[in-house]
Amino acid sequence: MHASTTPARGPAARLAQFASLVLDVDSTLSRIEGIEWLAQRRGPGVARTVGEMTERAMSGAIPLDAVYGQRLALVRPARADIDALASAYVDGIMPGARRALEAVHRQGVRVVLVSGGVRQAILPLASAVGVDERDVHAVPLEFAPDGTYVGFDAGSPLARRGGKPVVVAALGLPRAVLALGDGNTDAELKTAVPGGQQVVDAFAAFVGVARRPAVVAVADYVVARFDQLPPIVLGTAVQ
Q: Does residue 181 lie in a domain region?
């Protein structure tokens, strides 16, 4: 199997033009893995612990909600940390991503960002790639007046397992819908059926930063570079 615009499942998968594109952020739109980046600012011990938690959650070994609050409690990111992360996200935009999203936007495709990352850090990234803040769905943090960490929105579906399908289903996106991401929480968009309805019409595993076999196994497409994305979305990819 090649990381290309060919369907990951062979001749049974058909090409289609997609009216909506659901994008993950961490290790997909940007090469940064936000919580790990923040953890590195707290020293190697915290970075190692948080990295192990993240990888287990993204590979599906443990549910996201088992580690989401624990990671933030270890890191306790201040407002200044989140501002720095926002800059790192923009600096880490994947090569070709801006051009790819411009291409699909020109054809009227709706692009939404759906992430378990920090909303305040992702908004500048969204602006940099032309995504309206109303189409950014992530987890907001709370800060004290002095900028210290208070907590996160524990009620957000994006802080727990199965949350992305719930959020995307509620958006009522124009069909057909393609999702692109690297982790187990992204693959859930293909495998979960909240309310008995398929949330997306196809799922593309992004392997340009990390390749996770369990995620690739359920993918309709495997994408290693963003220049491979427009042909899939617009239905011009060659099988």
A: yes
In a domain, 154, yes or no: yes
Q: Which domain holds residue 73?
A: 10-234
Residue pair 134/113 in contact by the 8 Å Cβ criterion: no
**Residue 1: inside a domain, yes or no?**
no
Query: Which token pair is 66?
Result: 């088992």
User: How far apart, in whole angstroms, are the C-alpha atoms of residue 84 and residue 172?
Assistant: 33
Q: What is the CATH number of the domain that holds 74?
A: 3.40.50.1000
For the stretch 194-236, pLDDT in tens is 777 889 999 999 999 999 999 999 999 999 999 999 999 998 8
Q: Tell me how far CA of residue 8 lies from CA of 2, 15, 206, 218, 239, in angstroms.
A: 8, 11, 12, 9, 10
Pair of tokens at residue 199:
């949330």
